[in-house]
Amino acid sequence: MDTQxxxxxSGPAGxxxxxxxxxxxxxxxxxxxxxxxxxxxxxxxxxxxxxxVNLLREAGVADRLDREGLTHDGFxxxxxxxxxxxDLRGLTGGKVVTVYGQTEVTRDLIAAxxxxxxxxxxxxxxxxxxxxxxxxxxxxxxxxxxxxxxxxDFVAGCDGFHGVSRxxxxxSVLKTYEQVYPFGWLGIxxxxxxxxxxxxxxxxxxxxxxxxxxxxxxTRCYIQCSVEEKLEDWPDDRIWAELRSRLSPEHAAALVTGxxxxxxxxxxxxxxxxxxxxxRLFLAxxxxxxxxxxxAKGLNLAASDIHYLSRALTAFYGGGSxxxxxxxxxxxxxxxxKSERFSWWMTxxxxxxxxxxxxxxxxxxxxLDYVVxxxxxxxxxxxxxxxxxx
Length: 390
Ligand code: APR
Ligand code: PHB
Fold this sequence. Notes:
Layout: E1 5-8, H1 12-23, E2 28-31, H2 36-41, E3 47-48, H3 50-58, H4 63-68, E4 70-72, E5 74-79, E6 82-87, H5 88-91, E7 97-99, H6 102-116, E8 120-121, E9 125-130, E10 138-143, E11 146-151, E12 154-157, E13 175-190, E14 200-203, E15 209-215, E16 218-225, H7 236-245, H8 249-254, E17 260-274, E18 277-278, E19 281-283, E20 289-290, H9 298-319, H10 323-350, H11 358-373, H12 375-386
Parallel strand pairs: 1-2, 1-12, 2-8, 5-14, 12-19
Antiparallel strand pairs: 3-7, 4-7, 5-6, 9-10, 10-11, 13-16, 13-17, 14-15, 15-16, 17-20, 18-19
The chain binds adenosine-5-diphosphoribose (APR) and P-hydroxybenzoic acid.
P-hydroxybenzoic acid binds near residues 46, 212, 220, 294 and 295.
C-alpha cells in the first residue's frame, strides 16, 4: 500500500493531523494498535484552549463541541479553607477555555475520519519504521497476523509515550529530559452535578484535589495519592470523603456524591524528547512530550504540534517548500517548553511533596497567597492557562 503520510496512532494528535491533511487533499493512513472501542472509551482530561477549539473548527469537527462544550470564564484556587477566583476572561482581555472531554474529541474525530476517508487501520500489530532518512520511508505492521507494508513520503509519530516512533530515533540523536513526581492522581467520574460551576484546584495539607466536570450533570474529580496506592483500597465512599475533606466548608456542603462510572490512578511525569524530527519522521503529542495534568496542557500541546506539522506538510505538498519542515522541531519546542514550565509550576505550587521540609511548605503557602492576591501573578497564571499564542 502507498500513501503520502503514514500516521502512527489514532489519539487526538494522529486523528487531527489526518483530518487537516485531508482538507488539503493530502492522503494519509493511520495505523492504530488498539481497537476502535478501546480508543473511543479512554477517559482523559477535558479543558480545551481557544487555539485547540479553533483548530478543531478548522478541521470541521467542532459541531458537537460548539453545541455541548461549556465555556469557562475562570476557575478557583482553594487553600486554607478559602477559595479565590482566577478571572480568566478579565485577566486576559477576553480569553476563555472550553470544557469538553478528550474522549468526545476523539469520538468526533474518528467519526469524521471514518465517514470521509475510512483511513484508520485498527489493531495494527508490530508496527516498525524503516528508511526514515530516505525520501521514501516505509512502515511495516501485521494485520490479522498477515505482514503488510505501507510506503509513504513522511511518517508522523503520534503514538503516545509508549509508542514505537520515538524509539525509532537513534539514541545518539535523541536527547530526553524527565522529571517524575513522587505522587499520582486518583480520578473518579460520576453522574452527579459538579460541586461548582467552575473548576476548583485545591491545595491541602493532605494533598492536592481537583474538582472538574464533563457536563452540568457529570463530575470528574481527582485526589493526589501515593503511586503505590491500589484502586481496590479506594471504594467510592472513601474517595468522596477524601475529596470533601480537601474543600472549603461551603463547597464541602455542596458536594453531591454518587456511584463511580470510572476510576483510575495515573502517575505524574514531565518529559520532553529533542529533536522532534529525524529525517522524514516527525514526533507529535505524547510521543514527544508528557506534562503532569495540573493545568490540562496535554491535549492542547498535542493540538499545537499538529497545527505546526499540518502547516509544514501542507506547504511542502503545496509548492515543495521545506522551510517549515526544517523548522518544525525548533518552533514546536519553544511552545512545548513553556507549557512544560507552566505544568511543572502548577504541580509544584499545588501538591504536597512528601519529602519536603516544612520550609518548602511555607514557601508554597506564601506563593499561593501571593498568586491569588497579586494582579500581576494572576495575569501570568491566566495567560498560560488559556494557552499561549501559536
Ligand atoms: N503502534 C500503533 N499505535 C500505537 C502504538 C504502536 N506501537 N503505540 C501506541 N499506539 C497508539 C495508542 O494506542 C494510542 O491510541 O497511539 C495512540 C496515542 O494516542 P494518545 O496516547 O492519546 O496520544 P496523543 O494523540 O499524542 O494525545 C495526547 O492524549 O494521552 C493524552 O495526555 C495526553 O492529552 C494528551 C493527549
Ligand atoms: C479533567 O477534567 O479531567 C481535568 C481538568 C483540568 C485539569 C486536569 C484534568 O487540570
